[in-house]
Amino acid sequence: YPLAPEHPYPAQQRSCYTAVAHFLKNAQDYGVDPKRIVLAGDSSGGTIAASIAQQLVTTKDLPQLRGHILLYPFLQCLDFNLPSYQQNRSVPLLTKELAIRHGTVYISGRRDRANEIMANAHVPQEFMRKYQNWINVELIPEEFKSRGYVPFVPGPVSEELFTKCQIIFEPTFSPLLAEDAIIQKFPETFLLTCEYDIFRDDGLLYKKRLEDNGVPVTWVHLKEGFHGISMMIGMGLLEFPGTRKSLNSVIQFLQRF
After folding, report:
1. Which residue segment(s) compose the domain that 200 sits in?
2. Considering 43, 174, 230, 249, which one is annotated as catalytic?
3. Is 5 inside a domain boundary?
4. Quick one: average pLDDT of 123-150?
5. How far apart are CA 250 and CA 230, in angstroms?
6. pLDDT-derived band of residue 5, with 50, 70 and 90 as boundaries?
7. Which of 42, 50, 143, 230 maximizes the CB count within 10 A of its CB?
8. Which parts of the sequence belong to the Alpha/beta hydrolase fold-3 domain (predicted)?
9. pLDDT tens digit string along 62-87?
10. Catalytic: 108?
11. Quick one: pLDDT at residue 237?
C-alpha cells in the first residue's frame, strides 16, 4: 500500500480495501473458494485488517471473510498510558515515542506534538469517559499490571489538539472504537499479543470486546515476545523461540478452515 508522508491516512486503508474487495469478488477466477478467505495483518497491517473487516460486514455485495488474523495490532488512539505503554515505552523494536511520531506522520505528514499526545493531552476526560466501557485500565487483567505500572494521572488537555486529532478516533483508524453492532458481525478471529509490546493492552481490550460480542477468539500471548517477533522467521540467530510458536499457532488456526 502507499506510504506516508507522501500518502497520508486514509490512503492505506482505501488501497487495501480496494484490493481485498476485488479479490473477494473475483476469488473463483484465482481458484480460491470465496467462503474460505481469511484476512491477516501484523502491526499496522493488523490495524488495516481489522478496519477492512469492519467495512466488509456492512457490505452486502461481497462474500464475507471466514476469519481474520491480527498479530500485535495497534487498535486505539484514546489512551497512550495503559500499562503496556508504560511498561514497554523503551522496548525495541517499537518504543512509545517512535510509534506516536510515526502516527503523526501517518495522519499529517509531520512529526509534531508527539510529546503532548504521549501524555494524553489530545483527549479531554469527558471524551475519554464516553469510551470507558471499552478502553479502561480496569478492564485489563491484574496479571498484566504487576510490572512497572503506575496509575496515570491526567494532565492539561489541549482542546485545539483534540480538534486536530478527530480523525484518529474514527473506527477505521482506531478499530477498538467500533460500535457493538459492527463487532458482533465479525468473523472468527486469531489474536496474537506479546508481553513486551506497547500494543499488548490494545489486544487485550480488543479480545474482551470480541468475546463480549460473541465473536470466537483464538488468543495466543507470548510471555517473552516483543513487537515484530513473528517476522523474524528464518533469520538465524535473530529468530526467537516465540517466532515459530506464533507462526505455528497461525497455521493451526488456518488448518481448521
Report:
1. 10-255
2. 43
3. no
4. 96
5. 10
6. very high
7. 50
8. 1-119, 170-229
9. 999 999 999 999 999 999 999 999 99
10. no
11. 87
Closest-CA residue to 50 (of 78, 22, 10, 13): 13
In a domain, 2, yes or no: no
| Residue 208 scores a pLDDT above 90 | yes
Cell of 255: 488448518
Q: Is 243 within a domain? A: yes
From the CB of residue 257, how many other CB atoms can be counted at a distance below 10 Å?
12
Would residue 43 be called left, alpha or beta, if left means φ above 0 and alpha means ψ between -120 and 50 degrees? left
Which residues make Cβ contacts (< 8 Å) with residue 177, sequence separation at least 6?
76, 78, 131, 134, 135, 169, 170, 171
| Strand ranges in 137-246 using DSSP code E only, listed in sequence order | 188-196, 217-226
**CA–CA separation, 61 and 42 (whole Å):** 27
Q: Does a structural domain hold residue 29?
A: yes
- The pair phi, psi for residue 170, each rounded to 5°, is -70, 140
Closest CA to 70 of 99, 51, 42: 42
